[in-house]
Specification:
The complex is a heterodimer of chains A (116) and B (110).
Chain A (H helix, E strand, L loop, with lengths): L4 E3 L2 E4 L5 E6 L6 E7 L6 E7 L2 E4 L8 E4 L6 E5 L8 E8 L10 E2 L3 E5 L1
Parallel strand pairs in A: 2-11
Antiparallel strand pairs in A: 1-3, 3-8, 4-5, 4-9, 5-6, 7-8, 9-10, 9-11
Chain B lengths: L3 E4 L2 E5 L4 E7 L5 E7 L6 E6 L5 E4 L2 E5 L5 E6 L8 E8 L5 E3 L3 E6 L1
Parallel strand pairs in B: 2-11
Antiparallel strand pairs in B: 1-3, 3-8, 4-5, 4-9, 6-7, 7-8, 9-10, 9-11
């Protein structure tokens, strides 16, 4: 079956522009996570959803970052007024959400964001 | 805040040698997951450990969860070139918030 998909795969934008990153989880997966991964580092938690409810957004760096999952499926991570320090790989993961304990997270290919 | 430290950062081994990566948390974890990320790829789930002192094996891979649920290890016996990649541990604080270690990059020389 289809895995987690993310679009776009690459995004180059100018400082100050807004960007929207999309995640399409595995069908039927309740939980959806957003991570940011810098080169040579592990994924850094940003936020996660169960169905359409945002359960934890404590990892969002500041109020320029927001995420939504309005129908409990596709999710969008939006970064407003992008800055160069926002450049990173943004990864989405989904899981069945049967826990606790938390179950397997399936990661998407990521969106490589470059802010010039 | 909670931190998950992972060592070593890099490990270069000759094919056939063993490899171990260690993960330590500053706080007690609900459970811990291990992932493998190939160069240019995305993290792929390997295993989850939940119980104190748990040991699980997958062929040449052995995973351990410490008695205090604050540390974990992954040991690979007789490495192969297919084992190349970065291995991450990810600790769950019991609220579905995962703290990933910085990873151990394994290189295997044939």
């Amino acid at each position: 079956g289809a895995g987690v998909s993310q679009s776009p795969r690459y995004k180059v934008t100018k400082r100050g522009q807004d960007v929207a990153l999309r995640c399409d989880p595995i069908s039927g997966h309740v939980s959806l996570y957003w991570y940011r991964q810098a080169l040579g580092q592990g994924p850094e938690f940003l936020t996660y959803f169960n169905y359409e409810a945002q359960q934890d957004k404590s990892g969002l760096p500041n109020d320029r970052f927001s995420a939504e999952r309005p129908e409990g499926s596709i999710s969008t991570l939006t970064i407003q007024r992008t800055e160069q320090r926002d450049s990173a790989m943004y990864r989405c993961a989904s899981s069945l959400g049967r826990g606790p304990p938390a179950d397997t997270q399936y990661f998407g290919p990521g969106t490589r964001l470059t802010v010039l | 805040g909670q931190q998950v430290m992972q060592i070593p950062q890099y490990q270069h081994v000759q094919e056939g040698e063993d490899f171990t990566t260690y993960c330590n948390s500053s706080t007690t974890l609900s459970n811990i997951q291990w992932y493998k990320q190939r160069p240019g790829g995305h993290p792929v789930f390997l295993i989850q450990l939940v119980k104190s002192g748990e040991v699980k094996k997958q062929k040449r891979l052995t995973f351990q969860f410490g008695e205090a649920k604050k540390n974990s290890s992954l040991h690979i016996t007789a490495t192969q070139t297919t084992d190349v990649g970065t291995y991450f541990c990810a600790g769950d604080d019991n609220f579905n918030k995962f703290y990933f270690g910085s990873g151990t990059k394994l290189n295997v020389k044939p």
